[in-house]
Amino acid sequence: MNIPPNTVNVLRSVPLPDEAATMHTNAAVLDVGSCSTRLGFAGDTAPRMRQRTCVVKGRACFDEASAILDESDDPAAATVLKSGVIADWEAYEQLMERVVCMLDLGNAEHSTPLLLTEKALVPDHQRRKIAELLFETYHVGAASFALSPVLALYASGLSTGVSVELGNDQSHVVPVFQGLSLFHATHALDLGGAALTRHFTSLMSPLATGLLPLMETMTSAQQESMWEYVKERHCSVAESKQAFSSVDRFTASPSSGSVSSAGQGAAEDRYKEDFVLPDGTVLPVSGAARFTPGESYFQPSLSPALQHPRDQSAVVDEVLLRSTHTPLSVPELIVDAMQRCDHDLLPTFASHVVLSGGASLLRGVAQRMESEVQARLAGISVESTRLIADVERRDAAFVGGSIWASLPAAQSLWVSKSDYEEVGPLAVVRGCF
């Protein structure tokens, strides 16, 4: 995913389109996710700042870094985004004020444009309200929006393919053709890394009786961070559905209290791992707790978060409607998204499936995803399947935004303050993709 050192210089030497009057070489890239916020500049190979998306409302001192971001231990911290939709506009305004102050975006002499990433299936009125905040409150010179699944493809050097984004709150499957996302074939699954952590915590709680004295001294946010850390170190995904069935058969559930036979106990030891705390306390991580959360991506019925799908009768924005009433696995969504597109694009899409998002770093996810997609596509006469999973895919959206902001062809997509004053908030809907 690393951008060659001379890439930006080569891109800047390409002639500008006729409709682009200026070349922005100092653009800032802001990727605000429900879990982490990433900030940097065009041409950066990694974000210069990566912190938790947390805001402590009510604080008036915005020059303190701890007042806006990375306040996960504060019980008063507000959730800014939920499933890509801004859940608290007051908190979001505080976060944007922090970013504007850091980058000095309101300074006309610097003329720093801002590129904001956006999750798939987010209502247009949210983008318009953000533009109103940027141009009218903070007087930003120019801004633009881009979908994070599309940017994830750019980070892998592609403009056409299927972007599979496993985020903190949701998972998205987005077919992209020549840099444009295909809305009619886009899928969302209300399952992400946070749901996996909660599931893992429920499976591990009966085994954590020895940690009760320690956990009583921790806040709920600290406990969540602890279980998230253990999940990232020890959880994995089975090689196949049959392999998971063997784990499930030989491993007793932590909450069942059943006693295994000698042979079953030996099999359980094969799947079990121990997590050793700094004070020497050993926390056993059973096979069921290790493999069940990640298996939810391939068997949604195993996830408690998907047991009760939300009622869609009250949904106002059509982009928030789910394409299926019964949750489907991620490989099923990938194949269905391909089949909803032109049949001639199937071979191209099958060979350009890009995996991104923090939850995609779970061990074994990429290999299992590729094998299951290949098996399903073989039934429709598509033999070649290639899944691209870069090592640094957690920051794929930011890296893609860094590349996008350096492209001469993208200069015409910046919405300036004069464009906003002439057209209004609709300018960021018409002028951005």
Automatic annotation (TrEMBL):
Entry similarity comment: Belongs to the actin family.
InterPro entries with a match to the protein in the record: Actin (IPR004000), Actin_CS (IPR004001), ATPase_NBD (IPR043129)
Protein name: Putative actin-like protein
Organism encoding this protein: Leptomonas pyrrhocoris (Firebug parasite)
Listed SMART domains: ACTIN
Domain of life: Eukaryota
